[in-house]
UniProtKB/TrEMBL annotation:
Keyword vocabulary terms for this entry: Membrane, Transmembrane, Transmembrane helix
Biological processes annotated in GO: cell wall pectin biosynthetic process
Membrane-spanning intervals of the chain: 12-37
Pfam assignment, any one: Nucleotid_trans
Superkingdom of origin organism: Eukaryota
InterPro entries on file: Glycosyltransferase_77, Nucl-diP-sugar_transferase
Any GO MF annotation of the entry: arabinosyltransferase activity
Protein name: Nucleotide-diphospho-sugar transferase domain-containing protein
Ranges where the Nucleotide-diphospho-sugar transferase domain occurs: 143-357
A GO cellular-component term linked to this record: Golgi apparatus
Amino acid sequence: MGWKNALDKAKPVFATIYAAVIIGIVFSSLYVISAIYSGKSAADSTTSWLSRSPPLEQAPNVSQPEIVQAMSTPSLGPQSMSTRPIWEAPTRTKKMPPLKKFRLSKELVQQRVKDNVVIVTFGNYAFMDFILTWVKHLTDLGLSNLLIGAMDTKLLEALYWKGVPVFDMGSHMSTIDVGWGSPTFHKMGREKVILIDSILPYGFELLMCDTDMVWLKDPLPYLARYLEADVLTSSDQVVPTVTDDRLDIWQQVGAAYNIGIFHWRPTDPAKRLAKEWKDMLLADEKIWDQNGFNDLVRRQLGPPVDEESGLVYAFDGSLKLGVLPASIFCGGHTYFVQAMYQQLRLEPYAVHTTFQYAGMVFYDPPEYYDAPGGFLSFKPSIPKSLLLDGEHNVKSHFSLINYQIKQIRMALSIASLLNRTLVMPPLWCRLDKLWFPHPGVLEGSITRQPFICPLDHVFEVNVMLKELPEEIFGPQIGIREYSFFDNPLMPKQAKESWLDVELCQEGTRDSVALNTTSPLGALRFPKRSNEETFKTVFSSFKDVKVIQFSSMQDAFAGFTNKAREEKFRNRVKRYIGIWCCVAEHTPGHIYYDMYWDEKPGWIPIPPQTPEDDHPPP
């Protein structure tokens, strides 16, 4: 799939705001833990290149962090900035309207409403790529009744000139990423509540969304099934309570209600909830907006509204609440790790990238599919014993991962040598990665073992995508997600420019020879070839878009240039992350090691002393 996560742009954020991420992990783990035990505790126009949604057969395991460049068409008519078709940009010969024209008002919202519903998200300029992707998913679904709240004028101006309906929230926020858990992050939460409290009195239904979610299917018909609901909210539930598309069973939802996706009707109970929620947050800056919502809604929970709908009386006893099913209004774990919707044979409506390290469903520009130098891929080979035999435990998990790491390390070296972008293979895991001790997978979840895990469960994808100084780390090595070639946006001509490379034993008579089994033929190439052989042979195929190796086992003898070898090692050693966590030791995390095979007797154990708690040298 064309994925594009702004990992290198602080989504998730790294380096300078690492402390904020740690704070976020602590809070997030509390909600995941609550989700684990919940089952036990309760019996339009589109742009030329953004044309189709990526396939959803599997959850890809890497993302690409380039800003979506919406190629808007200049407007030819004098339409209002709020009624103009989305992606139809205003003419550049005209000045942008004054800021006061973008102030939130009933009239402004009315221009975007359809069937009395408006879909809203908000953010600052740091989330520009998230917002454009959010809008593009909706317009691809034929939905145009949307609005973006701009928290800074840089975002407002950028969206205006791209033809995206936008209003000024008057927040005067910084244009940079604020970091999870920071004071500015909490300020953004308060702005959301103020926005809800402002829009509901206009009399419109409000589908409020965070920018780190996307719509995969038109949700409005589903929401219309529950006309009696005052509020329909998503949740952090990771244990299924239903196996079809009904609302989650509220008595069994022990996880937090998640305010990244929720639908409000302009009823008196909903308005009272919004006002009390706003007043609560403005009175105490230490309250997290989601905690405040949960505290208020759960003040009274029950009885059920009726026997069939799945709605429950909540808040003050008059608000009718429904919990959207986590299997199809997905969180990050239910979508990327459990693939709950696949297992239950359901169609997902949305994915909100909660509880993930690097996953996001992004669209990408055409150049994403035409990397300089072309692409390199390989067919991974994993012995059945490593994948399926024996217990799923720390030892068997690391044996499986290490076997794959060695192949990926080899592929990275060849990609670097040939100046090609590596299409990562599917990454198989036996154990889940979380923020706290666990028995391998979340208890009560339907995570299969083994499973194709997100790449960020093992690799520091943000580092892989970051431009490191070449004088220390050697040339940048581009990567793509494992489902890259399955993306319908992949140009046909790129798929047809393909060379298969079959590894053979050294000294084989017909090595370095072509046959004609494919359009370009298949190249027989000797194992353990040196740097010079690689350069000499593959210099003849520089114009081939894709080179795919039959295997990476002993494919490359290594760099002959020791300085380049050292730089490569400096780079790829930083690509590896940690697994978390064992229960019987503190700290409980275990570092992966890119060069584990060079260390006799290497075993997967947590750091034994504080001095040992660092990435492998």
